[in-house]
Every structure is written in C-alpha cells, then in structure tokens.
Amino acid sequence: MNDLPPAATPDPLARLYRTRPDTAATLARIWDVLPDARLVGGAVRDLLCGRAVTDMDLATAVPPSDVMARLRAAGIKVVPTGLAHGTVTAVIDGRPHEITTLRRDVQTDGRHAQVAWTDDWREDAARRDFTINAMSCDRAGVVHDPFGGQADLAAARVRFVGDARARITEDALRILRFFRFNARYGGDVPDAEAMAAATALAPMVERLSVERIWSELRRILAGPRVAETLALMEHAGVLARILPEGYDLSRLGRLLACDGPVDPLLRCAALFAGDVAEIAQRLRLSRADGRFMLAVRDGAAPHPGMTAHDIARMLAADPAEILIARAWLRQAHELGRPDARWDDLRDAIARIPRPVFPLAGRDVVAAGCTPGPRVGEVLEQVRQWWLAGGCEAARAACLAHLRQVLAG
After folding, report:
1. Which of 78, 201, 293, 321 is 20 to 30 A from 264 (CA-CA)?
2. What class does CATH assign to 261-355?
3. Torsion of CA 79, 81, 84, 86, to 10 degrees
4. How far apart, in whole angstroms, are the C-alpha atoms of residue 126 and residue 119?
5. Residue 278, class by beta-carbon neighbours within 10 Å (0-12 exposed, 13-18 middle, 19+ buried)?
6. 2: pLDDT confidence band, cut at 50, 70 and 90?
7. What sign does the CA torsion over 109, 111, 116, 119 have?
8. What pLDDT does 82 receive?
9. What residue ranges do the domains of the chain occupy?
10. What's the predicted TM-score (pTM) here?
11. How far apart are CA 96 and CA 56, in angstroms?
C-alpha cells in the first residue's frame, strides 16, 4: 500500500503543537540537526486517534555515530542508550527523546534480532509489529503510512504488518503485545489473521523471559477490557502458557464487576490460582509486589458492619492498603457488584490512623521482669489487652497494666 497523499492525511503536528506548545521548540532543535528525522510509532498513532502522547520517538537514516556527533555539535546532550540497535537519546530541557537509525533485520531467533542500518523508510516500517505502529510523520506534518495504519485505526483493527506469522516468528513477545494493543485500539472482533497466528504460535511465549511476560501481563491488567482480553488469550491457548499454575477468570470478573481500582497487582491477586508465592517467584516480581500479593491473599479481610475498634485492631496488624485490597477481594467473592456499604468500609479504613502498640521489651525489663522468654510473654499479654480495648490505651495506661500483670 502506498503512502497516503498529504491532502488526505490529517496533520498530527498541528494537534501536538496545540496541546503541547513547548514541544515545537524541542522538535525544531532536533529537526535542525537531523532534517530527515520523523516521528515514529506510538506518537504518530496516538496523535492521529486523539490520545495523549507520552514518548515522542524519532527515526532517521543517519547512522547512530553521526547522530551523536551532530547532536553534540549542536550543544544537545546525548546518551548512547542502545547503540546495538541504533538508538541514542537526546536530552533537551531534561526530557529524553529516543532517536533510532532506520534498520533491517539480518537475523532473528524469536527473541532477539541482529540488525543492519538502512536508508529505506519502508524497509524499516516493514519490521514493525502492527500497521498502526508503522506510520511516521515528517517535519512538514506529512504522515507516511505504507501499510494502511490510518485505515486500521479508523476501523478499530489491530493488524500485523505483512504476514502475521512472520512477525510473531521474529519476536514472540508480539503475541502478548497483540492482545494488549487490541484491548486499547481494537474493536469487538479481533483481526482473524492475527488471532489465527497467535493461536498457532502460542507455544512460542514459553521461550520469552519471565520479565517480558510479566511486563506485558501487568500492562494488560492495567488497561481497558481486561476480562475480554484475557478471555481471548485463554481461547488462543496463551493464558495457560504464561500462567501454568492456573488462573481464575471468574474471580477476576467478579472483582472487575465491583468497579474496583485499576490496580494490576490487586487484579493479579484475583486472577492467580495456586501458590501465590511460587507464582511471584517464577515471574520474578519485586519483593514489594510479592509481599503485597501474599498479604492480600492471606489474612483476615474486613467486612461492612465492623466497628472503629474492629478496624483499629486489624490496622494494628496490617496497613490500610492491604486491608482495603482484601476488602475488594472479599466483596468480589461475596457480592460481585458495587455496593455503598463496602465503599464506606474502605473509606473508614483509610481515615482511621494506624495504631502502634506503645510498649517494647525494654519497658517490660525496666518494670522489673528478668530478661528471658517471659519478657515476650508478658509483652504479648499487655498487647492483647491493648487490642481488646480497640488500641486506644496510651503508653501510660499500658505501663500501668504491665505493672498489674507483673504483680499478678
């Protein structure tokens, strides 16, 4: 498919400059150095469909060493962030802009690609994953669209560039990216060729690193149409391969039906089946994420009707964010729909300060208890008394009760 003529193509730069006027000067500095450079990929796609643009990546036919030399000569800070793949980062006013030399694949193994530089824009676009990501925009605002990305955007269709199987064979991560992009840009019916290729090549996802799998899964869970997307992944045989321990789409669906927060970790806690600790370890979640997942799935969950003292006692054991997450899961299990009582419960948990038991072992020793196992026993006895009173007793009252325990 030939590039659309300029007259038929909306100017994405006009919208960009209206919404982010500071960007005009930044891009002008880059274009003064690299006049052939074009905005590429997601920036062009999102400008054309009216979405907010975060990263503004560019491409050029100039080799990366020359790109760096030209930028430095113009007084622009440049960082060689990915020279093996032709990418450098220009930093202007503290904002990074990736600039990548046009490439062609020399060899791929389903995970990595060896590339060579080219000056052929179509050849570079042909190695991209989807037609909506293969467009570019030059300094004049002309959109170059060799594979019909604009038509696919208008039709809410996520379609691979060229042969879907070939694109997936080049990089198996494109299977997961297809489902993520389809959720955000696709319609109710996914592209048939893409689905067929993803289904046939689903075993390839097992060759991906767990870090890449988790990165894509997390984005899917934080995006739109989560339930529908995971159902498609299950139908294609992909979900079972990235979550071999098992999954529970019904439980996740009930959480989503409660209109819970867009929290991928909370949604994982509902989705994952089996031993959460093992799954977190296999996917190499961060320690903080792993601890959150375990804490949310284990331990007592609050429920409507609890008193302030009840909530305070729970807060003494776990922070508010954990209790709130447990409340969402319990609401999903018991109700599976929005309910004001549960909202009020979570508001109360967020409002009540987390109580802190005011004594420590040294206080027990100072009160006359001989150091040893009895110190912990006495401290716990006082703590249980403090909990029973709704965690309201101050330090002085706790010390008085400590003396009573030791006297008894």
Report:
1. 201
2. mainly alpha
3. -70
4. 13
5. exposed
6. very low
7. positive
8. 86
9. 1-155, 261-355, 361-407
10. 0.88
11. 9
